Amino acid sequence: MKPLLSRVESKKVDKAAAMLKVLAHPKRLAIVDLLGKEEKMTVTEIYRTLDLPQAIASQHLITLKDRGILSSFKVGTKIYYSLSIPKLLDVIDSLEECCDTM
Fold first, then answer.
1. What pLDDT sits at residue 29?
2. I need a labelling partner for 28 at 20 to 30 A (CA). Which of 9, 45, 63, 64 fits?
3. What is d(CA 36, CA 89) in angstroms, rounded to the nearest whole number?
4. pLDDT of 29-64, one tens digit each?
């Protein structure tokens, strides 16, 4: 078996680690999971569903959007968020399976 760094470019490993670091926060992981189940949601829908203060939800949404995990668009006065990388749901599912076996 080849060493990991010879199979995968170190830049890819660094990017993957940075992505996992962003997802490591439980509230951000919950937001990604929620948006994986819904096509799009407003900030208000997100913070009410997850029972978060609006300011905290907004901070997490900005972080996720800045990392390219979420995208947003505005309709009138409302900003809608959606998941930009649907494959992240596979990561969440895999992590959930691992936790079930521990």
1. 93
2. 9
3. 7
4. 999 999 999 999 999 999 999 999 999 999 999 999
The residue with tokens 């926060």 is 25
CB 58 within 8 A of CB 43: yes
Tell me the β-bridge partners of 65. none
| CA–CA distances in Å: residue 4 to residues 1, 21, 87, 98 | 9, 19, 22, 21
83 closest CA partner among 22, 31, 18, 27: 31
Count CA within 13 A, CB hemisphere, residue 37. Answer: 9
Q: What is the pTM of this model?
A: 0.83
Give the residue with greater pLDDT, 27 vs 2: 27
C-beta separation of 16 from 87 below 8 A: no
pLDDT at 3 over 70: no
Locate 18 and state its tokens. 């940075």
